[in-house]
Specification:
about 180 residues; mainly beta; Jelly Rolls; 1 helix; 12 strands; globular
Length: about 180
């Protein structure tokens, strides 16, 4: 009985939290974007700060925050829409944009990846005005209901892999769509 009660309570809290925000004109996605998993040395530089602080599971993240993982470390960020990004060892990303339009409900998540490897698992985005994008110094990748792997080396070389779904890449003025065929 006790094992069934805890998941039911968690589900109730999540549903209640979602319903409370339904009648509002604007949302604050940063209150629902957080570090969900950390392992090893994970640091965060909060927007406007000059110092790194130790990351904690449940820490709220917002526009302008920078997250980095050390050697033998990893982290996962869960965004307000249910999408996640996993940071592998030696990775640094900045949160450029977290937004929910009060008028249309469109969502925007934009990350800037400086170095390292990430795996983004993005929910199926139905609204054509919504987007999830990872930018690097070499270009950008946008995804919708996809699994995207981005690797950036020390010299800025970027590697993008499509593990599932559709992605769009943009570099040197050229945009391409990559469709993952069923196996």
């Amino acid at each position: 009985m006790r094992r069934k009660l805890l998941p039911t309570i968690v589900l109730f809290v999540l549903v209640a939290s979602a319903l409370v925000g339904c009648g509002q004109n604007s949302s604050n996605p940063s209150t629902l974007t957080m570090l969900s998993i950390t392992e090893g040395d994970v640091l965060v530089m909060k927007a406007g700060a000059d110092d790194w602080i130790e990351a904690e599971v449940g820490m709220s993240l917002e526009d302008g925050d920078i997250i980095k993982t050390g050697d033998d470390s990893s982290a996962e960020i869960t965004f307000f829409d249910g999408s996640t990004v996993e940071l592998q060892l030696g990775t640094e990303i900045g949160i450029t944009s977290l937004d929910i339009s009060g008028e249309t409900g469109s969502t925007t998540i934009t990350l800037e990846q400086t170095i390292g490897a990430t795996i983004s698992r993005v929910i199926n985005i139905i609204d054509p005005a919504s987007r999830y994008e990872v930018e690097t110094s070499a270009g950008a990748a946008a995804v919708r209901g996809s699994v995207l792997v981005v690797c950036v080396t020390e010299d800025g070389t970027s590697w993008i892999a499509n593990q599932k779904g559709n992605i769009w890449t943009r570099a040197q003025g050229v945009e391409l769509q990559w469709i993952q065929a069923g196996l």
